[in-house]
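To: structure desk
From: M.T.
Subject: fold request, one chain
Message: Could you run this one when you get a chance? Sequence is below, nothing fancy, just the single chain.
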Amino acid sequence: MCGIVGYIGKLNATNVLLDGLEKLEYRGYDSAGIA
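Reply: Done. Structure tokens follow.
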């Protein structure tokens, strides 16, 4: 399984995206990152 996390808004995107990646942590270990 895989997952995609995105964010559009005025808050600090780093914290929101890191939280999303943590929630997807066990879906697969092929790759993860922030661009």
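Reply (cont.): The longest helix spans residues 13-23. Let me know if you need anything else for the meeting.
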